[in-house]
Amino acid sequence: MNKNNIRTFALWARRKLIYDIKNQLEILGIFKDSILKEYNHKIPKSYRDELAKEVMKRGFEEVVEEAAYVWFIRIIAFRYMEINHFITDTSKCFFDSEESFNISHIEFISEISMELNLNNDEKLNLKKNFSNDLENLYKTILILRCRKFANILPDIFYNKNRYMELLIPDKIFDEESILKRLITDIDEKDFKRGVEIIGWLYQYYMSDKKDDVFNGLKENIKITKENIPAATQLFTPKWIVQYMVENSLVRVVKGYGINRINISELKEECSYYLDDYKEESEILGDTKSIRHRTEVGNIENIKIIDPCMGSGHILVYAFDFLYEIYKKAGYEGKKIPRLILENNLYGLDIDYRAVQLGTFALFMKCREYNDDFFTEVEYEYVNINMCTIEESNDISKEEVNYFVNAYIESKNYSDEVKNEKFRKDIEYLVEIFKDAKEYGSILDVKNLNFVTLKESINTMKNKIIPSFQLSKHILFEKILKLINQGEILSGKYDAVITNPPYMGIRGLNDKLSSYLCENYPVSKYDMFSVYMEVCQRLAKENSFYSMITPHSWMFLSSFTALREKLIKEGNFINMIHLGARAFEENVGTIVQNVAFIFRNGNVSSYKTKIIDLTKEENSREKEKKLISIKKDKTSSNVYIGDLKILMETQTKSIAYWISDNVIKLFSELPPLSSITKPRQGIATSDNKRFLKNWFEVERDKIKFDALSKEDAMISEKKWFPYNKGGDYRKWYGNNEYVINWEKDGKEVKEYASKLYKSYSRTIKNEDFFFRKCLTYTFISEDMGVRYCPNGFIFDVAGSSVFFEDNEKINVILGFLCSKVAKMFLDTMNPTYNIQVGDLKNIPIKEEMYTCIDIKEKIDNLVRENIEISKREWDSFEISWDFHSHPLAKRGMKLSEAFKIWEEKMKIDFNKIKRNEEMLNKIFIELYGLQDELSESMNDEDITFRKADVKREVKSLISYIIGCIFGRYDAEAVNNYRIKSGEVEEQGTKSKWFAKNNIIPITEDEYFEDDIVYIFVEFIKEFYGEENLEENLEFIASSLKKKEGETSRQVIRRYFIKEFYKDHVKTYEKKPIYWMFDSGKNDGFKALIYMHRYEPDMISKIRENYLKLLIKKYEEEAERLSLMINSEVINKKHRSFAKKKTYRIYNQIEELKKYNNIAAYVDGKKIIINLDDGIRHNYEKFQGINMVDSKGQEVKMNLLCKI
Q1: Hey, what domains does the chain have and what are their CATH numbers?
Q2: 917 vs 819, 870, 944, CA distance in Å?
Q3: Confidence band for 230, pLDDT divided at 50, 70 and 90
Q4: Organism's domain of life (predicted)?
Q5: pTM of the predicted model, to two decimals?
Q6: pLDDT score of 279
Q7: Mean pLDDT, all residues of the chain
Q8: Structural Rg of the chain based on CA atoms
Q9: How far apart are CA 935 and CA 938, in angstroms?
């Protein structure tokens, strides 16, 4: 299955459908901000009025989103059924061209009419349309087919809103229509490989929205109930689904003792089934099964549920498994699909779209096994057990009373006890399902007599509904849905199998997080862990549940109570520890997973089988490894043991790989907290407001080296260094942020007090501010600990370790950067979430700081590593201690400067690697771990950047631009030029200096301060004229010079196409050099240094560059026109002149529009405040609304979009 093509199509299709449907709405006179009363369009007025009313009620965007999805899934469904021959040729929806559609439907007109049950008038209307309007004919037939399939799959094809037919995709036969692209973009073979393609399409379709939700989380926007489906959509790899289904259902089938089922043969047929460590009879000491055996032998009584069913992937494979069991038990093939749907499979989800797709997938399975299934469903509908969780919020007390009274009236006799019971049951359901979309299937519903309730509903329907108004019909349907979902939620199941949502409590809205705290105190920290309790509750006693979850619950101290509860109340039969990259989609290395089978009943001394697949690089490799382990019974990847014993160790984690020696070290040695004070940092509650990268604000407002709170106050500075974690890095670095801590954090504290009543909830450990410490990243692939000098405040993501005795700081840094500390930390918590509690518990050998010889060795190695790492960090301009670029060697050839730098970096890299290996050796010997750890280090584990010619040249260019702007002084010791007077002085000395703070970038050298010209002038002056051409050639070759290009052309191309992208990336989308950009034709670009911005800057750009450039382009166009018309010029040059003329005319048009928007913004004389940060100031020049020369409102950017 080509998932890249599927992803590309789904993303494109969503955007295309949304765009097209918005256009269709506008044609109907329905706009985002207004709805026209009069419109000129030949459609039923009632349909259009219904649509307009819906837009007013729900909002323009929501209606567009719904319509886009409805038609996307309908088209996908028809394509799947067509390719798999589940519908007849007359129902074909996809054609290569208008002509093939025309021929097909002329040929099958009679059959189409019969199939769609058309009356004579409708038949005549179809025939009439063949001659003049194929587009509308196609739409008509497609709509009629949707109506026909509404009898089979109402969830997908039934129009509960008639207006949906108005929004059918337009221009069906265009090359860029969704139907045409579906034919060309996705191979038919992918649709033939199975119904799981529907799930993949839906996941990709939702990925834009998912990105929006997670981007919102970064801005502290909590996940609402409407966005939970998008945030949690993740398709489970098929082999993991098979593992969960096979390992659950083989045991269920065995427990049921179904006749004619050979369990040994069944196990052999299952690719991913893992045997118990011992058979149950051996564990229990007798021949009785511990499984619950009521109704032995009846396969129709097996109940399986997925409480987070998504698009039904797990249920689809469970269907296949059960089908084979039914066949082995002797059932007739065609009858099996209905039996499975009506008796065995149950599913719940808060996302109605997912339930639609899950139902569709299961119906396709039924059709796969029974050719007559669709026909049978039309005559007798299947009672499926799949529910979208519905809310009761819009059912009033008056409606409940009406409903109960209707129940009383429908009975032939009066029974006050039963009447009251009925009332209480209905009131209970209405109450418990309030805000149910927030909670989904975590709701704990008590077991009412749902059979009686449904029978009562049917009686009421038959006797009373015929006389009801439409609103009463709707009320009955709403309450019936509550009864159905209540029955499923209160049920008990033989197997519960799911991939739950992964959402930490911090990202949840207040309502949901409060509910978790109240109802799931031991598992409240994440939705996946809550579902571990939910699945246990849904499972019958001694039956099974199976899940794939993040593996954090196995290790984090916050989940200790959950681990203890689960191990006390049941047994983990087996687990496959997947680690990172278990999913086929790239979800990064932060999410690490485990899949397991759990028995809801405890057997003492039970030994769990755990298979370690964490070392395999991707999902496919993990699958291969599991299969090979099944064959190799002696694999070292298999652990068998009693989890209760692991929980008795000091770590209380399921660190199944740890040796007796390590357990002994944990129990006998003092913890790190005995000599240090690990502390969690503060949360500002609004990072966007209070935190800035250091380069955003004025440097002289920053106090880099405050020794204490008092020192900070005396300085009267506003900004102070702030540890915020950052990338994985050891020894030194990641010093990038500053915090507004003016007047002892007055603004931050006032804001926190306003939010939480007391600022101490988020502002913690103030006594440790500005102290020398060790710091590390809270979420990281590895334990990267760094030395942090005085002057810093620290964040929750940049937690820190403090010392009463700073003499120990180097020793402990060396230890925490060693393999030994990593092993201890991985034992307690191998997740990427490094907890303060875990750090505190690392066992410490006192000899490392009490033995003078050992301490001196460690001190010297660590001190050297800090120095080397600091030098490397400070060699990049992102450091506030950056003094000079490593290639900025006056009078030297750049090739020689790079060789010197390359050799220096190589020496330092090898030195830091050797030192780390020596430290490993010291600590391995100290702890007696020679048999468990090796001192050697891989190059990729050394957090030190080797020299790279392309990177160094690009950073040199950036440095030179900084010199041209006056940000740097290549001759100064500290490199920074801060005072305006110094800037003016430089402007009188060097012709390359940007005195007006503007550097134009154009395709030719139109200005004397053209960027390439002044760049070359700097190279000539700084490195010497005699080295100029060689140095320019070195730069050009490093930037991937193309054949035929001169070095200056390469440099110009880099400035036009790549420089700003690199700058924005280096400065993490907070560029200090701003690029004015006229648009895609590259008509005009110019850089300014935002720290030198003045309100008249745009005026200077317009007067000194834009107007002149328009004139120069017009002159150039005139010159080229003469060339084109000249008989003297050869054909090749005339052709070139034509192309260039066309481009220049586009550039002139672009510049005129840009000049208008520049004039408009110039009139505002925008003032920027550096303390507001780059993004806030940058946005003042973006998305400018104005009316153009044609009287149309346009939105334009003055600066390059980032």
Answers
A1: 3-193 (no CATH), 230-388+494-657 (3.40.50.150), 397-432+448-490 (no CATH), 672-921 (no CATH), 1097-1202 (no CATH)
A2: 9, 19, 15
A3: low
A4: Bacteria
A5: 0.78
A6: 55
A7: 86
A8: 35
A9: 10
